[in-house]
Amino acid sequence: MSEVSAGRLEIARLSTADADFETRLDALLAWEGVSDDEVQRRVADILEAVKTRGDAAVVETSNRFDRLSASSMADLTLGPDRLRQAFDGLPEAQREALATAADRVRRYHEHQKPESWQYTEDDGTVLGQQVMPLDRAGIYVPGGKAAYPSSVLMNALPAHVAGVGEIVMVVPTPDGVLNELVLAAAHLAGVDHVFTIGGAQAVAALAYGTETVPRVDKIVGPGNIYVATAKRAVFGQVGIDMIAGPSEILAVSDGGTDADWLAMDLFSQAEHDEDAQSILVSWDGDHLEAVGEAMARLLPTMEREAIIRTSLAERGALIHCRDRDEAVALINRIAPEHLELSVEAPQDWLPEVRHAGAIFMGRYTAEALGDYCAGPNHVLPTSGTARFSSPLGVYDFQKRSSLIGCSAEGASTLGRTASVLARGESLTAHARSAEYRIRD
Ligand SMILES: NC(=O)c1ccc[n+]([C@@H]2O[C@H](COP(=O)([O-])OP(=O)(O)OC[C@H]3O[C@@H](n4cnc5c(N)ncnc54)[C@H](O)[C@@H]3O)[C@@H](O)[C@H]2O)c1
Ligand SMILES: N[C@H](CO)Cc1c[nH]c[nH+]1
Q1: Pick the catalytic residue: 109, 187, 338, 378?
Q2: What is the CA(336)–ligand 1 centre distance, in A?
Q3: pLDDT for the residue 35
Q4: Distance from the CA of 421 to the center of ligand 1, in angstroms?
Q5: Among this protein's residues, is 355 annotated catalytic?
Q6: Is 118 annotated as a binding residue?
Q7: What are the C-alpha distances in Å from 369 to residues 104, 105, 315, 359, 373?
Q8: Which is catalytic among the residues 109, 248, 320, 337?
Q9: What burial class does residue 136 get, using C-beta atoms within 10 Å of its C-beta: 0-12 exposed, 13-18 middle, 19+ buried?
Q10: 395 among annotated binding-site residues
């Protein structure tokens, strides 16, 4: 099928029966942002500037890219009193909603807490694993095109549950506009430091440290291509969680879900960013038409119409497949950040869904509920990386050390095995170190 407009809606319409389906799907899924040469160059320059000139470079780049007029980092630093003031000043309904979301997110993540463990072998040798939190984590809260108080909770609360010693948050404030909900969420989630900086300069400040911004052990959180590219570049200097780029939704419908509901679910991710991706798959052609019509009708009512329109035109699609099996194959091929299973018995699909950041089951489970308050994390792998990455979680803020404690008898037994293998590698010191402990 070719590109068509439903009303004034421009969106790709694909059919798995078309000869060029594979090529068109590949083109649709490619997100070249992170490997774009110009972006790479710009990010490399910013990283180098911050690494060598610290605060001065952070201030300069923030003024430039976020249209600020800061004269020093003091202008880009918020203390605990300012965060509390934001929380106390919220209208009651917002304070309650934030607290409800925080409670649910915290409770969900408590279930993820991995425990240290040990076991003792017959000869008294102890083996195990010790789990420890990171000393200091940096959380990136996006803020270029929208403000994300929910992302403050999603980043900071699992860090807290993990027992991280210090949480440093960065968030851009384009044109100097502070978002009170974001600051209130930082207060509620127990963030230790807040710097109103974003983009590659914020990632660099966290990775290398500056006179003002403490260097962290790991940087987590989503962001645009500048943030994603910078995170990838500083990996190794610090840990990173994943590349969480522009939002995505793949909805699969059996035709039984209200077309307006699905249209709005697709819009909900498209409104994040022109680079966001919204795809609907169904084997019911009439239903796809109905959703296309609903989208065309509802689009002019959206506050972020322009962003949604571009996102749908550039990266959206309505895909007609033959049957349920083809829908499952598409899910695993696309490996979406968010998968909505808008079908009759979603649980039956689970054993076959191998790749998806988060799976929303059934017609009532709007993806947007997961964005804010269902409980699971909304920082999720994008661009097909759900093939090998998982949602942000408590485990991202911890690391594991192996434990090995040999009894005299265990050292002797293991020493014989180690000696043979070490001599096979011609590593004599290894062999003799083990052999000293072998009993006659
Ligand atoms: N996957 C998730 O969990 C998740 C959650 C929320 C948001 N998101 C995504 O995060 C992204 C947020 O992007 P955003 O732009 O709104 O905010 P952002 O905070 O990621 O980026 C804003 C920063 O980008 C930098 N920047 C902008 N233009 C630049 C340029 N030309 N050169 C150098 N630097 C530049 C600026 O420093 C600015 O502070 C969206 O794509 C959204 O879909 C993802
Ligand atoms: N959909 C985003 C994750 O891709 C998270 C979010 C925050 N606010 C609204 N949505």
Answers
A1: 338
A2: 19
A3: 60
A4: 51
A5: no
A6: no
A7: 12, 12, 23, 12, 6
A8: 337
A9: buried
A10: no
Checking if the pLDDT of 2 tops 60, the result is: no
Secondary structure (3-state) at 274: coil
- Distances in Å between the Cα of 335 and the Cα atoms of 255, 284, 350, 381, 390 are 22, 22, 14, 9, 11
Q: Which residue has the tokens 């270029």?
A: 144
Written as one letter, the residue type at 121 is E
Q: CA quadruple 320, 326, 332, 333: dihedral positive or negative?
A: negative
Which among 221, 195, 216 has a CA at the least distance from the CA of 206?
A: 216
Q: Over 80: is that where the pLDDT of 31 sits?
A: no
Decide if pLDDT at 4 tops 50. Answer: no
Please tell me the distance from the alpha carbon of residue 73 to that of residue 67, in angstroms, as a whole number.
15
**ipTM for this model:** 0.98
Identify the nearest ligand to the CA of 374 by its number: 2
Nearest to 12 by CA among 319, 429, 246: 319
CA–CA distance from 70 to each of 76, 81, 139, 197 (Å)? 7, 20, 22, 11
Angle at 218 between CA 31 and CA 182, to 5 degrees: 75
d(CA 293, CA 67): 40
Q: Which residue type does 428 have? A: T
Q: What is the DSSP string of 194-226?
A: EE---HHHHHHHHHH--SSSPP-SEEE----HH
pTM as predicted: 0.94
Pocket residues for ligand 1 (CB within 6 Å)? 42, 65-66, 142-146, 148, 151, 172, 198-200, 222-224, 226-227, 244, 246-247, 272-273, 275-276, 378-380, 382
First to last CA, the chain: 79
